[in-house]
């Protein structure tokens, strides 16, 4: 005769580390309650479940509306490492959605995250900087980070953080410096970026040059780049083995050669040769940046004289596949052929 037996083991598709999710519209309110639980395992399981749900922007909207961000802000101060790691992970996923980024600004999440800049867990810090990177993609988000007076701290972290986090930091700084570079310039960002231009990591070299583009928009930034003797390094990077680094270096030179000092510093380091080589790059942005730098250098009589024999090269670029490159080449020809 057969007997019914109930196994003491969980079915193979059940994850014991994740909270059971309530049905339908009750799911997120229930998880929000569990985030506030005194029981550590309950909080951990709720965070695991919430992480999965936050990939859907509709769930992000609902979570913000019912107060999950306030619960998550409290959990950032939790003494348990896993809770802090999963909390920052949930916030990072939320920051990948527009509605999440708006929620960050409305609920002052930037300030709450800033307390974890020196967290002993590198995973916490990495998630934090991923969140900041995505937040900074929104102009209001970049402004929010600047207005939170975090720029000096972020600049300082360039000296101490692991390389993968440095890359995230440089992305965030580049976006924030486009909004306002004042605090960064006062925090010695230019000499710090100079050091990163010499990194063995090509991503860091490229991203440091991108940040220099942003910091060189104001006149003070252009002057500091010249004062710290960075232009010769940028010219050297025009010959880097990585095309992305070449393009970024040309982009930074495009801004710093606006000033007379910048033009002559580039001419003195023989920038024209590698810039002309860059006109044949497979990256359209590298070709475009190189043309614009050469146009700047052609405004100096010495630069114009050298470039006159290369006018056919610029004329050929009028047939480039990129419309922006075509327009830039036309302007370059006019500047080079201009006669006083």
Please tag this protein with its features.
elongated, 0% strand, 23 helices, single chain, 69% helix, 340 residues, mainly alpha
Report what the structure shows:
By secondary structure, the chain is mostly helical. The protein is built from 23 helices and no strands. It is elongated and about 75 Å long. Helix content is 69%, strand content 0%.
Helix content: 55-70%
- Tally the helices: 23
* Quaternary organisation: single chain
The averaged pLDDT comes out at 92
Q: How would the global form be characterised?
A: elongated
Runs with pLDDT <50, length 5+? none
Order of helices and strands: HHHHHHHHHHHHHHHHHHHHHHH
Secondary structure elements and pairings:
Layout lengths: L26 H9 L4 H14 L3 H9 L2 H8 L5 H14 L3 H9 L2 H6 L7 H15 L2 H9 L3 H7 L5 H17 L2 H5 L2 H9 L4 H14 L3 H9 L3 H7 L5 H14 L3 H9 L3 H7 L5 H14 L3 H7 L3 H6 L6 H15 L3
Short characterization:
With 340 residues, the chain is mainly α. It is built from 23 helices and no strands.
